[in-house]
Amino acid sequence: MPLEHMQTATVLPAMERRQAGQALRKIVPRSLHAHWAPSATRRDPVDILLEAGRHRIASLLPIRYDRMRASPFAFFRGGAAIMAADLADTPVTGLWVQACGDCHLANFGTFASPEGTPVFDVNDFDETLPAPFEWDLKRLAASFAVDAQSRDLGDRTARHLAGAVVQAYRRHMHELVRLAPLASWRSRVDVIEVLDGVEDPRLRDRELKRLDTAVEAGHAGYPKLIERTKGRWRIKEKPPLIFPLSGQRDDTHEIVARTAFESYKLSLPEERRILLDRYELADVAFKVVGVGSVGTFCAIGLFVTRDDQTLLLQLKEAQPSVLAPFAGPSVYANQGQRVVVGQRIMQTVPDLFLGWTEDRGDDQQCYIRQLKDSRLAVIGADLAEGALPYHATLCGVTLARAHARSGDPARIAGYIGSGTAFDSAISAFALAYAAQNKADWRLFVEAIKAGQIDAHGA
After folding, report:
1. Has residue 154 been placed in a domain?
2. What per-residue confidence (pLDDT) applies to 359?
3. Mind giving me the DSSP string for 67-135?
């Protein structure tokens, strides 16, 4: 089972595990990771996308495809299934971790801990599954190369950014090996420290001020998303991206959402169930989110106390991971549970209300979390715009910390080494895969022009 691959960190002393990682280079030379070329049996990327769409809400697929055609990077974000199949054709180390599964630069960001402290971490786990560590790292490095080329920054910058990701990952993994397991497990990326490290003083000061404003605004609730009208709280409509489920002629979706929110409480630890029971579900609405998630069932639940304190929880459908055909199915039959367990393993500060639905009579499995505060998320997005090399380093460090929580940092550190050989190999792969992604995007755009795919905005 995949989990057995990850349960090696206590078998041998760290030095011996590091040596085992070094010995692995003879079986899977690091230079092999530099190569990318599509195999003769590679599936048509458009066919992969269309097949994935068969399991999604058909009326929302044109929105998904319209968002994906915007740029090669937008296509990359929505094409996790394509790259998962491609990664399965690359050399595999056998060093398993709890993988993100859809590891790209836009799936890292800032969010508030339960204490309200802003932290930086991986923030999307829809595709999480145990898998070889290099799959996440290759996708993350490639995302920076794709993004750089989408901005017309050139191949040299694209390769440099990919290299910065891997270098940061490698160096931090070596640092984590030297820590006690408890210290490594507790390590986190503090956003204030992140911003203090930005060299550009204007960017640093601007983002620190925006961070203070976002944190203060977060305490005020969700004024842009909810309102109180005619004596009751409701979620504001923003059709076709947010629309109410209550009061519709066909109340099927509302019943599904309300039932899911109720059954989800069974997955919470008892003390958090007590906390949630202090709120009542006042309204539910459908919400179209992201790029890769468009077409899956997603709802917002507005919970309110008798004293008008509000809480927004997001319900998202969880389908089998795109890694499953290649890394093996999850040990959890409930895909919502798969996502929740993966997030709890990878994140230093998991969501206080993270849980999954337990309705065994419904095959639409979901997980639930607090709705992300977009005001905080913008901090990470703007940092990526203004300081790409720093953001690449930040993401590399964060991924190493997340992988070390489930994998064996000593074996990984031993394999990747202290020099730049591994960095160079993954950078070369990232650049080659960026070219592949651009070619796939062009095929996708041509399919839209030919009428094979319906794409129109919201």
Report:
1. yes
2. 65
3. HHTT-HHHHHHH-HHHHHHHHTTS-----EEEE-SS--GGGEEEEE-TTS-EEEEE---TT-EEEEHHH
At residue 1, does pLDDT exceed 50?
A: no
For residue 317, the enclosing domain spans 221-370
Q: Which pLDDT value is given to residue 247?
A: 61
Query: How many separate domains does the chain show?
Result: 2
- Contact of 404 with 17, CB cutoff 8 Å: no
Higher pLDDT, 387 or 322: 322
Paired tokens of 64:
């998904």
Q: Distance between CA atoms of 145 and 155, rounded to whole angstroms? A: 8
Q: Is residue 24 located within the same domain as residue 151?
A: yes
Pair 66, 112 in one domain: yes
Q: 32 with 128, same domain?
A: yes
User: What global pTM score does this model have?
Assistant: 0.91
Q: Kindly provide the residue ranges of all beta strands, DSSP E only, lying in 128-274, ordered along the sequence.
A: 129-132, 189-190, 226-229, 232-235, 242-244
β-bridge mates for residue 189, sequence order: 120
Residue 144: inside a domain: yes
Spatial CB neighbours of 202, under 8 Å, sequence gap ≥ 6? none
Domain contains 123: yes
